[in-house]
Amino acid sequence: MRFHFTPVRTAKIENTSDSSFWKGCGAKGTLLHCWWECKLIQPLWKSVWRFLRKLGIELPQDPAIPLLGIYPRNADSYHKDTCSAMFIAALFVIARTWKQPRCPSTEEWINKLWPIYTMEYYSAEKNNDIMRFAGKWMDLEKIILSEVAQTQKDKYGMYSLIGGY
Q: Source organism's superkingdom (predicted)?
């Protein structure tokens, strides 16, 4: 099992006073800072919210939404499904680069989001629920495929499962 201790928690465990964040930003490594506030993490979250705006989903940039799954009252449940997959992929990429002094890239996020898309497609196909899948992913699929280069599409086998192009 893998644990992702924050620098503050690690400093308490090791009985040291150094609780600065590993990524080199110099800030205190609290949980909220590591997952949301760090200037090295913010470009990824800005990309996620850019995709949401392209989908016509207007959500406030509030850490409670991706980190805790607490959506505003007026958020459509239809959009929550789409957002949840996007947030899970973003959190996974942040965790994967946990102690590396770099920002997770949009490309890494898309590369993590695509297998989620593929697995949901096969699950929907098996459960004869392809229409719900298509409603959730159709617009996002177009945006993802427009963002990645052809070489990346070829390398990762990224092709449309809905539109057939």
A: Bacteria
Tell me: do 44 and 33 sit in the same domain: no
Strand partners, 20: 28
> Which amino acid type is present at position 42?
Q
**162 within a domain of the structure (yes/no):** no
The residue whose two tokens read 């850490």 is: 63
Contact 70, 64 (CB under 8 A): yes
According to DSSP, the residues that pair with 28 across neighbouring strands are: 20
- Torsion sign, CA atoms 13, 24, 43, 94: negative
Q: pTM for this one? A: 0.82
Instruction: Give a yes or no: residue 18 inside a domain.
Output: yes
What digits encode the pLDDT tens for the residues 38-50?
Answer: 888 899 999 999 9
Question: Can you tell me the distance from the alpha carbon of 149 to that of 158, in angstroms, rounded to the nearest whole number?
Answer: 10
Cα–Cα distance between 38 and 17 in angstroms, integer? Answer: 20
Convert the pLDDT of each residue in 49-65 to its tens digit: 999 999 999 999 999 99
Same domain, 33 and 47: no
Three-state SS at 4: coil
**Listed residue (11, 10, 48, 8) closest to 31, CA to CA:** 8
Give the domain extent around 95.
40-156
Specify whether 31 is located in the same domain as 69.
Answer: no
